[in-house]
Each structure stands twice: as structure tokens, then as C-alpha cells.
């Protein structure tokens, strides 16, 4: 596999490890948690071969990119500033953004806060969700309880420490193929899903689902998180309240050409949330990949590449 060696690029505030390949209209690929630019290893060569300049950074707190201290260093404004600063450093006025997981959340917010720097967007797995009327952490704590992983991240540094004890085991337990829980038949009461606790997951003897990463791939992630830890990445989550407060009054309409790629076995978003996007995104296409869970670009890379290239040919052609 042809995965480009990273360059260290200063974006005006921090140094970022950036993987680039190809020439043509720019695409910037934004990974999520707990991932790296390496998560796009199946997409970078295919997109470059189709005539695009593909740019995949390790995001703030991850991999070879700087890891500033303190929760305030990881606000959504900082994440968007890293992307626009990187574009400035590379003399790129506008780019099409591609996000997955937390990367998708950042790209959705960039579409609201810095749309002039974007030619459009493709987001995977996490749909656009409009700003709620109350603090999202308050809502999560009320609905999902203190053990829900995002709520737990707010309350202590236990997750930072536990994940770092054995990064390979943590990544292997998280990045797996899983089936979405199904409701019981219509004649019986539906089963209530237990909120996800990553700490409780680590307390089990065996990981659920089947592995996605082979030994060499898992080693890339394990080495990166062994060196850099998990506090920077988890600090993204610790800014939910700040991000909510600081975007009060922002129009929640995404006014850019948008492709959302979902998955039938997605466990972090519901079909109802996907359907609700129509209200906020006038120019939206939705594609759903069958028999695929949350880690779409690594679970079903060929299927994803086909969907992306079809949409890009129509909405952001290379030539």
C-alpha cells in the first residue's frame, strides 16, 4: 500500500504531521477518535489516482502533530483554526473537507463557522445534529448516565490513564466490526440499549465483534498512542460544553454541497438522526453502505471509495 510519509507543517499555531499525495483540487481528510491520518490509508491512493490533491493530517493531540496542554487548547474553534491554518500554509483558498467520527463533527461545524474556506464536504457515520437547546453534557448525563463514555470523560482522567496502560488492547477492543443492536419483534417490548462505557468494555475478557486491523496496522496505532497518550484526543470531548456555549446564535443551516455516508450497522447514530438532516442541509445526498459499522473507511474501503468518487465526479470534478 502506498501511504505517504508525513511532512511537518506549521499552521501558524502548531506543527502538524501531514500526509499528502497527488495533484489537482484539494481534499482534506479529517480523522476521528481514536484514529490517525493512517485511518485514510485506503482512500488516499485512490483519491490521488482520480486526480485530487489529498491532504490527511494527524489532528491536534494525535500522532506526530503537537499536543498542547490543557482542555481549552482543544475547542472546536482551535480544530477549525488548525485546518484553515494548514490551508494557508499550503496556499489553498478552498478545499473539500472529508470527516469521520469526531472529524465529521469538526467538519460540520466548519461548514457553519468557516464555509468560505470549503468547496463542499463529505462526512462519514456521524450526521449533522443541530445545536441543542441545553448543554449536551447535561443532556447526556440525564439520558445516558455517568458511565456513558463521553460523560465519564468530563468527570475524571481515569480513561486517559486506563487507555494508555495498553494502547494496543484499547484500539483492538474499539476498532472492530459490530452489528447494530436490533429491536425485538413487534409483538414484544424493545430491548433498552445499555449506554456505552469504554471503561467497562476494557474490563471484559474478550472484545466483542471481529477485528478490522491486522497486526501491522494495529501496531501503527499502538505506537502512536503509546508515544502521545490519550489526553489530547479526549480533551476534544471535554469541550462539548464550551463548543455549545460559544456557538450560540450560529445559523444551523449547512449551505454547502454535502454527502453523508452512513452504515447499516452504525452504533453511534440512528436512522432517525440521519433523516433529520434534510431540515438543515438543502444540498444533501445520503448513501448508506450495507453490512458496515462505524469504521467505514477501514471496514468497507472499496465501497466507500466508489461512493465518494461518484459524488466527487459530479460535484467537485478533478478535471
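^ C-alpha cells above, recovered residues below v
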Amino acid at each position: 500500500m502506498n501511504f505517504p510519509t508525513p511532512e511537518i507543517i506549521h499552521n501558524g499555531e502548531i506543527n502538524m504531521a501531514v500526509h499528502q499525495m497527488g495533484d489537482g483540487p484539494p481534499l482534506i481528510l479529517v480523522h476521528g477518535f481514536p484514529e490517525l491520518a493512517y485511518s485514510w490509508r485506503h482512500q488516499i491512493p485512490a483519491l490521488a489516482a482520480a486526480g485530487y490533491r489529498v491532504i490527511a493530517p494527524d489532528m491536534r493531540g494525535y500522532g506526530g502533530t503537537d499536543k498542547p496542554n490543557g482542555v481549552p487548547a482543544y475547542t472546536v474553534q482551535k480544530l477549525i483554526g488548525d485546518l484553515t491554518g494548514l490551508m494557508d500554509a499550503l496556499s489553498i483558498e478552498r478545499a473539500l473537507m472529508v470527516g469521520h467520527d469526531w472529524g465529521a463533527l469538526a467538519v460540520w461545524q466548519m461548514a457553519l463557522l468557516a464555509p468560505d474556506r470549503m468547496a463542499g464536504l463529505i462526512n462519514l457515520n456521524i450526521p449533522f445534529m443541530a445545536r441543542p437547546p441545553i448543554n449536551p453534557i447535561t443532556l447526556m448525563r440525564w439520558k445516558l448516565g455517568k458511565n456513558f463514555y463521553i460523560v465519564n470523560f468530563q468527570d475524571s482522567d481515569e480513561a486517559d490513564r486506563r487507555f494508555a496502560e495498553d494502547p494496543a488492547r484499547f484500539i483492538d477492543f474499539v476498532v472492530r466490526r459490530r452489528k447494530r443492536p436490533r429491536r425485538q419483534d413487534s409483538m414484544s417490548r424493545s430491548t433498552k440499549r445499555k449506554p456505552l462505557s469504554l471503561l467497562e468494555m476494557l474490563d471484559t475478557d474478550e472484545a466483542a465483534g471481529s477485528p478490522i486491523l491486522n497486526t501491522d496496522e494495529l501496531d501503527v496505532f499502538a505506537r502512536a498512542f503509546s508515544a502521545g497518550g490519550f489526553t489530547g484526543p479526549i480533551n476534544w470531548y471535554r469541550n462539548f460544553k464550551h463548543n455549545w456555549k460559544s456557538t450560540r446564535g450560529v445559523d444551523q443551516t449547512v449551505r454547502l454541497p454535502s454527502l453523508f455516508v452512513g452504515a447499516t450497522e452504525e452504533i453511534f447514530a440512528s436512522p432517525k438522526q440521519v433523516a433529520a438532516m434534510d431540515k438543515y442541509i438543502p444540498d444533501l445526498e445520503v448513501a448508506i453502505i450495507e453490512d458496515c459499522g462505524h469504521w467505514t473507511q477501514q471496514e468497507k474501503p472499496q465501497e466507500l471509495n466508489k461512493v465518494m468518487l461518484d459524488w466527487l465526479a459530479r460535484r467537485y470534478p478533478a478535471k
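The first helix runs from residue 44 to 49.
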